[in-house]
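For anyone still unconvinced, we reproduce a single protein record, the chain in one-letter code, the fold tokenised, and leave readers to judge:
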Amino acid sequence: MDELFKCDANYVPLSPVNFLLRAAGVYSGRTSIIYKRVQFTWDQTYVRCRRLSSALLSLGIQKNDVVSVLAPNTPAIYEMHFGVPMAGGVLNTINTRLDAGNIATILKHSGAKIFFVDYEYVPLAKEALKILINNTNSSSALPLVIVIDDLDTPTGIRLGELEYECLLAGADPNIELKELKDEWDPIALNYTSGTTSAPKGVVYSHRGAYLSTMSLLLQWEVGSEPVYLWALPMFHCNGWTFTWGMAARGGANVCIRSPTTTEIYKAISDHKVTHFCCAPVVFNILLEGSYNRRLPHKVNVLTGGAPPPATVLQSMQQLGFHVTHAYGMTEATGPALVCEWRQEWDQLSPDVQSKLKARQGISVLTLAGADVVDKKTMKSVPRDGASLGEIVLRGSSIMKGYFKNVKDTKEAFKDGWFFTGDVGVVHPDGYIEIKDRSKDVIISGGENISSVEVESVVYRHPAVAEVAVVAMPHSLWGETPCAFVVLKKAVRDKNIKEDEILRHCKMNMAGFMVPKKVVFMEELPKNGNGKVVKAQLREMARRIKIPAGEAPVTVSKKGRGVTGSNGNNGRSDQQVHVLAVSRL
């Protein structure tokens, strides 16, 4: 077969951007985007994306230049998933829940040439840019800022002279765009966290994004003409690739700025929503606002993060939501495992079904392999649902690597596998279930929080001698940070309060990372090597139930009992103060 050759007819680089060209050709009259009173067709969206590409090129964007955006789920951020790579740029969607310091760090690390900012986040962007100037001592390091005003009801808010809709209106949609030559080229840059110390920018390839999109559409069984509600932020792994996926299926994108109970139920009713993705925390929002009503039609929901409790899954099912659980991470281009439903499970009791749905599942079709292995031997653990090992992945949807971070990239890729850092088991049917997180990552409301990052901030409080942060179960967020603090001896008689530690945290980190509880201890439990035994702290955090409005807790020296303001020692139902937090 040596006479056969690769040519333009039989080889075209894979890219999810091509889904838009197809959608404009075969679904031209179908609705592509719904936002408040504004609607576009796929033909109109295609033209708008071409205008965006043309505008970016006129502003000097070259191949592999980073274009950042800080925005909620609006038509503009959706269009950037096509318009930016069509211009050869790399899209960086920034988590809107980060604070100004985190955003400044991302802008500096990514080297963003252009920074799109939704009008709602102009004050936050101003603060971030000010920090960036102070850190670099030069305004020349600033990206070009373009405000995205509201498409339905313009506000007139600006940060500089440029505005998104005006930019599009003045651009030529017929300009010739360069074709993608290498599917290994980067398409997106997503940060695993916005820390000021060591940000990790995960780089996706066109090939990886394309294959991940295709596999999720197949395994979630997304049919023709879906109506997709954007309850999941598009900054989360590019909306788990469904930004590109809806173009592939000719679906309608229903954009809402915030996934509130009212907005979600209204969208389902008004637009006959068929699919949406979300973190498990949204389930609580939906259940609390449901008033026991059933949906007018079945709605498919894909969720990821901490497994939802069985009772929550059952309640969602009763309302008419069909829930599928998935597991993923930024490095895997979103979901890597999906809990595919098997028909024989329909005959099982609701209790058993809920437990099965809470599993992380089997590998997406993109992956060449997903396994749970003994890190020392690299052998697969027995499929007994009990033997622990680390979850490893390999396949074309795995990231290209960490941007400007060769060391961590090499550490993540070993022996032909990507090491997730998550500990799990394999059940006899091949389904994987996570049992612990070796990296001590806390998943709160769908957000990944590093306990080490939170500890570093708490430790900076002048009264803190030692601190350990672990995940604590939370009825709304799934998990939330819990800080175990040892005060310096010199201040132990000064009556340091929990609120003081929390205020310090709120001033120095993003709101969703702030511990929801501080437990003061005489000493932290440690092993023979002097390392903190976090397993013991997690168990203690699991036992303490914390509704709002009560006093902070103090734990005895041996860590065996919990004492509240009423002095009842050792009660597992002791109530402690928790701050109410407004987010997702």
In short: The chain has a mean pLDDT of 87.
